[in-house]
Amino acid sequence: MKVLVAMSGGVDSSVVAGLLKEAGHEVVGATLQLYDHGAAVAKKGACCAGQDIHDARSVADALDIPHYVLDREARFRSAVIEDFADSYARGETPIPCIRCNQTVKFHDLVELARDLGCEALATGHYARRVEGANGPELHRAADPARDQSYFLALTTPDQLGFARFPLGDMPDKAAVRAVADRLGLKVAQKPDSQDICFVPSGHYAETVAKLRPATAEPGEIVDAEGQVLGTHRGIGRYTVGQGRGIGIGGGERLYVAAVDAPRRRIVVAPRAALPKDEVVAGEVNWLIPPPAGPIAVQVKLRGREAPRAATVAWDAEGGVMRVRLAEPNVAAPGQACVVYDGDRVLAGGFLRAA
Predict the structure, then answer these.
(1) What is the pLDDT of residue 196?
(2) Which residues are catalytic?
(3) Do 118 and 27 touch, CB atoms closer than 8 A?
(4) Prediction pTM value
(5) How is 82-93 classified by DSSP, letter by letter?
C-alpha cells in the first residue's frame, strides 16, 4: 500500500515508518508544525515543533522516504490552544491531546493522505484497529501500560477506517526501542514527550492566564454550604479532585469538589464527598450504532485508570450519554468519558458539569 505516516520526530512514529518501509509499502512521512519554533527549541521532548521536526526529517532521509512539513499553527491555535483556555475559563479540566487528535491530526492528515493517493494513514499510537464483522473496530493496545485508546476515542468511524496503528501489538516500549536500534534510527533512545506540548514551561496556568486573564483573578474558596474558607489565586489553577496547593490549611484535608466559574469560586469538600455514581458526557462519538436502551459496559473517566463497570444510556433528545457507575468515582468536567466493551472502544465524549 501507499501509506502516509504521521511523524512526530519521536521513536514511536519513526519505528512505524521504518517497519512499513521494511514490509515493502510505499511510505510518505508528514509532520505537523503546530506551534512556534522559538518556544519549542528550548524544550526537548515536545512533539511537533523545533528539534522534533528536524528529527522527523532526519529519520525520513535515513529511510529514503519523502517527507512533508505542514504548517498548521493557526489551526492548532484555534482548535486546541484556544479551546484549552476556554475550557479552563468554564471551570473545566481540558484534555488537549484528544482535541488535537480529533481536529488537527486525524482530520488534516487523512485529508493530505487522500490528496497524495495514499490508502492509509499510520500513526505511532498504542492502540489496535481490528477488522470486525461490521467494519473496523478500535481496541486497547496489547501493552496496557502504553495503551492510548482513551485518547483516540473521538476518532470518527471514517477516520478509523483509514487509520493504522502498527505498534498496537507491541509487548512494551522496550520492544519498540529494540526495533529502532535494529533499523539504525538515531532516535532509538530519544525520551518520550512530556507535559502539554504547547506549554514549554510546564506551567499550564500561566499559559491559560495569558490567553484568558480572568482565570487568574482571585476569588473565594467555599465549602458545600457556601461558607467562605479562604481566597484562591485564580480558577485556572484548580481541577476537581485536587488536594494539594489549594491554599487553606488546618483541620480535615479538603479537596476541590467543583469549580464555579461564573462566581469565580472554588468549592471544597472532604475526599469522601467527591465520588459520584452518575455522570453525563456530551459531544459523544459513537463507534457503534447508539444503543436504544441502557447497556452494561466499562468506562474510563481519566487516561491513567483501568476501565470500571458502568451502565450507559444514550439520550438522543438531549444529545448526551448518561453513565451510571457501579462504583462511585471522581469525575472532572472537561475530561473524557470513554466506553469499553472489554478491549473494544464503543464511544467517547467529554464529561459535563452536573
Answers:
(1) 82
(2) 100, 197
(3) no
(4) 0.93
(5) HHHHHHHHTT--
